[in-house]
Amino acid sequence: MSYLAPETLEQALSALADPGPMRLVAGGTDVFPALGDRPLRGGLIDLTRVAEMKGIAARDGGWRIGGAVTWREILKTDLPPCFDGLKAAAREVGSVQIQAAGTLAGNLCNASPAADGIPALLALDAEVELASRDGTRRLPLADFVTGVRQTALRPGEILSALHIPVQPEGARSSFLKLGSRRYLVISIVMVSAVLWCRDGRIAGARIAVGAASPVARRLPALEAALTGLAPEALGAVTTPDHLAPLQPIGDVRGSADYRRAAVAELCDRALRKALHG
Amino acid sequence: MDKRTSSPLTAFHLNGRIVEAAPLPGERLSHTLRERLGAREVKVGCNAGDCGACTVLVDGVPVCACLMPAQQAAGREVDTLTGLLETPEGQRLMRSFQDHQAAQCGICTPGMVVSAVALLRETPAPTEAQAQDALGGVLCRCTGYRKIVAAVVGAAAPRMGEGKVGDTIRRLDGPAKVEGRERFGDDIADPDTLVIRVIRSPHPHAAFSFGDLAALERRPGIAAILTAADVPGLNAFGVIPAFVDQPVFAESVARHRGEAVAAVVGTPEAMATFDPADFPVTWEPREAVLSVEEALAKGAPLLHETRKSNVMTSGFVARGDAAAALSRADVVAEGRFRSGFVEHAYIEPEAGFARLVGERLEVHACTQAPVMDQEGLAQILGWPKERIRIVPTAVGGGFGSKLDLSVQPFLALAALKTGRPVRITYSRTESMQSTTKRHPSDLTVRIGATKDGRLCGMDFRGDFNTGAYASWGPTVANRVPVHASGPYRIADYRAAARGIHTHNPSSGAFRGFGVPQSAIAQESLFDDLAEALGMDPLDFRALNALRDGEPTVCGQVFEQGVGIAACFDALRPAWEKARADCAAFNAASATVKRGAGIAGGWYGCGNTSLPNPSTIKAGITPDARLVLHQGAMDIGQGANTVIAQIFAEALGLPLAQVSLVGPDTDVTPDAGKTSASRQTFVTGAAAKLAGEALRREILKLCNAPETAAIALDGDGLHVTHEVQRHDIALDRMTPDAEGYVLRAEETYDPPTKPLDANGQGHPYAQFGYAAHLAVVEVDLTLGTVKPLRFTAAHDVGRAINPLLVEGQVEGGIAQGLGMALMEEYLPGRTENLHDYLIPTIGDVPPIDTLIVEVPDAHGPFGAKGLGEHALIPTAPALLNAIRNATGVRIREVPATPSRVKAALEAAGGAT
Ligand SMILES: Cc1cc2nc3c(=O)[nH]c(=O)nc-3n(C[C@H](O)[C@H](O)[C@H](O)COP(=O)(O)OP(=O)(O)OC[C@H]3O[C@@H](n4cnc5c(N)ncnc54)[C@H](O)[C@@H]3O)c2cc1C
Ligand code: FES
Ligand code: FES
Question: Parallel, antiparallel, or unpaired: how do β-strands A43-46 and A22-25 relate?
Answer without folding.
Answer: parallel
